[in-house]
Specification:
- This protein is an alpha+beta fold.
- It has one domain: outer membrane lipoprotein receptor (LolB), chain A (Clam).
- Helices cover about 30% and strands about 40% of the residues.
- It contains ten helices and twelve strands.
- InterPro entries: DUF6612.
């Protein structure tokens, strides 16, 4: 099924790290953002104004912790060939220079795996507890994976910018010490937003415009939580129901929920690569040695 291979490709990106393709294709749950409460206090400021403040605050987050969960069902409900994917990620991000340390727990159709990855400008390190050893991939692979990480994971201000694109159909309500911004609908802005999400959650390589052209959005629900005092982004929950043409003339239904949260802005411990990972074989060096020996 091409849908399953698309899911497996996605596990090489979205911060789900390339090794999951090896483990799955051969934690801790993120605190979900609540639904937009109509009974909450109305706000004088608009939803876009609150998101703009959160976007500005996110730009100041030089380091933070995160949790991200993806619950995805690809294929018709009740179909034996349906692919069910559940991925939980917890980790830390440093942004100048970009470094990421995360643990990934995945369950693809009952096949469970666990993986730790560390991404740095110099290399991409992976630890599989099953084999109790570190692997090291090249600087080029590190750059490729950095480019395909989910924006909600690695570029929170860009993720907020995308949500702002759902205006004017955004609502904002106060819920205690939080501002809860929500969107519910399938208007013109929904397609490009969902297309952007699918590039990471399905590992699609086409442009967002090309993806949107093959897409039908049946449901899009977005909830984004903001610290009302400090404007920090707190958590999000994005529910989608859609159909996309993964094969010519054949649309595959997908039900997907992506949720996550941020913590310890500018207060996380430094990311350090373990000595065992640093000593792992470098594929570029091995290739050069093989060429010299030929």
């Amino acid at each position: 099924m091409k849908g399953r291979s698309a899911v497996c490709r996605a596990l090489g990106y979205i911060g789900l790290a390339g090794v999951l393709v090896v483990t799955a294709c051969s934690s801790k749950q993120a605190q979900p953002a609540p639904a937009l409460e109509k009974s909450a206090a109305p706000l004088q400021s608009s939803a876009d104004e609150w998101l703009a403040r959160a976007e500005a605050a996110a730009k100041k987050m030089t380091r933070y912790s995160f949790e991200l969960r993806m619950d995805q069902h690809l294929g018709p409900d009740g179909d034996k060939a349906r692919t069910n994917v559940l991925v939980d990620m917890t980790g830390r991000v440093e942004r100048e220079p970009f470094r990421l340390d995360q643990t990934i727990d995945s369950d693809i159709d009952g096949e469970k795996s666990k993986l730790r990855t560390i991404l740095t400008p110099e290399a991409y390190y992976m630890y599989l507890p099953e084999y109790e050893e570190w692997s090291k991939l090249s600087k080029q692979v590190s750059a490729e994976n950095r480019a395909t990480l989910s924006e909600f994971q690695a570029d929170p201000e860009r993720a907020i910018e995308r949500i702002r694109g759902l205006a004017p159909n955004l609502e904002a309500r106060r819920n205690g010490a939080e501002i809860v911004v929500g969107y519910e609908g399938t208007g013109p802005a929904a397609k490009p937003f969902v297309a952007g999400m699918l590039r990471s959650t399905l590992g699609l390589t086409e442009s967002e415009g090309e993806i949107a052209a093959k897409l039908e959005v049946e449901k899009l629900s977005v909830v984004y939580r903001i610290d009302a005092e400090r404007d920090w982004p707190l958590a999000y929950r994005i529910e989608t129901k859609l159909a996309i043409e993964l094969e010519p003339g054949q649309k595959s239904p997908i039900v997907q929920t992506v949720s996550g949260s941020y913590g310890k802005p500018n207060a996380t411990s430094p990311i350090a690569v373990p000595d065992e990972a640093l000593r792992a074989p470098d594929p570029d060096e091995l290739g050069e040695q093989l060429e010299l020996n030929e």
